[in-house]
Automatic annotation (TrEMBL):
Originating gene: proC
Reaction catalysis annotation: L-proline + NAD(+) = (S)-1-pyrroline-5-carboxylate + NADH + 2 H(+); L-proline + NADP(+) = (S)-1-pyrroline-5-carboxylate + NADPH + 2 H(+)
Pathway named in the protein's UniProt entry: Amino-acid biosynthesis; L-proline biosynthesis; L-proline from L-glutamate 5-semialdehyde: step 1/1
Top-level EC class as recorded in UniProt: oxidoreductase
UniProt-recorded name of the protein: Pyrroline-5-carboxylate reductase
HAMAP family per UniProt: P5C_reductase
Length: 273
């Protein structure tokens, strides 16, 4: 059986996506190969049933996959991609998840006719609840585009972007976003402890509140602002709390705007490095 997908880099994001694909049943395990230099991570991937090797040289160069997924750090992606130059300008489509790295970078390293899909997933892909944005160059065939959409859908919601330039903003919002939300949970837990609650109760309240509110926001016909109003009893406790959180200069609104802007600028910088 020939290899349909080669996944290069099976760290946090690569493994999260691999789990989603195999869980979704879109591709059988014997059609996926993983390249990962770290032995423990290679063993973790092999534990899912896929073939896992330490470097590109361990793969058969004549066995060109339909998809070459690059899930390594932006700082090394150019050097890593160069090991797969023999699959450029051909039938193999490159799917990148790297922050900042442009399609032009892959065309430069692998050849200008190489089909490339740039994507930005996020870590909840691990449990099929990710957000994945994509942008493809003109060389990607409709059949491969359909296969990749089915594959990525195993990991969560998929949105095709109208312009590649939007990828930096997407990275700052949904790519990094789980990090912001995890910190919100940590901060709510800390505040709960400071308010006198035991550690285990504080941890449970923080996680369950964010999970419940996020689930309701996704499932409800009402927009989040309407759901918020439903919690705000006149002159009640929520109003008192939100008066702090919604402060126009020091509240969460300007703080998040600054947060997303800093992450977007860093994504742009990574693209220039
Ligand atoms: N983490 C996240 O939430 C998200 C990450 N991304 C993107 O995903 C990419 C990977 O990030 P992340 O998973 O967090 O990083 P990790 O460091 O967890 O994973 C990258 C893995 O690639 C391995 N690697 C290094 N060189 C090679 C090589 N030549 N061949 C194969 N594997 C190699 C690394 O090994 P070693 O450590 O030994 O170098 C590491 O295990 C980045 O480009 C990032 O921008 C995108 C969206 C979200
Ligand atoms: O922090 C990063 O650079 C990567 C990209 C988005 C999430 N993690």
């Amino acid at each position: 059986m020939s290899t349909r997908i080669v996944l290069v880099g099976c760290g946090h994001m690569g493994f999260a996506m691999l789990k989603g694909w195999l869980g979704g049943g879109v591709v059988p395990v014997d059609q996926v190969a993983v390249v990962e230099p770290t032995p423990a991570l290679r063993e973790r991937a092999a534990g899912l049933g896929v073939r896992a090797v330490a470097d590109a040289e361990a793969l058969d160069a004549s066995d060109a996959p339909e998809l070459l997924v690059l899930a390594v750090k932006p700082q090394v992606i150019r050097d890593v991609a160069a090991h797969y130059r023999h699959w450029g300008n051909g039938a193999t489509t490159v799917l990148s998840v790297a922050a900042g790295t442009s399609i032009a970078t892959f065309e430069d390293v692998l050849g200008g006719q190489t089909p490339v899909i740039r994507s930005m997933p996020n870590i909840p892909a691990m449990i099929g609840k990710g957000m994945i944005a994509t942008y493809a160059n003109a060389h990607v065939s409709p059949e491969t585009a359909k296969f990749v959409e089915a594959l990525l859908s195993c990991s969560g919601a998929v949105a095709a972007l109208p312009e590649e330039a939007m990828m930096d903003a997407v990275t700052a919002v949904s790519g990094s976003g789980p990090g912001y939300v995890f910190f919100f949970i940590e901060a709510l837990e800390e505040a709960a402890k400071r308010a006198g609650l035991p550690d285990d109760v504080a941890a449970l309240l923080a996680k369950q509140t964010v999970w419940g509110a996020a689930s309701l926001a996704v499932e409800s016909q009402d927009v989040p602002a309407e759901l918020r109003r439903q919690v705000m009893s006149p002159n009640g406790t929520t109003v008192a709390g939100l008066n702090v959180l919604m402060d126009e200069t020091k509240g969460l609104g300007p703080l998040l705007a600054g947060t997303v802007d800093a992450a977007r600028r860093r994504s742009e910088e990574l693209g220039k490095a």
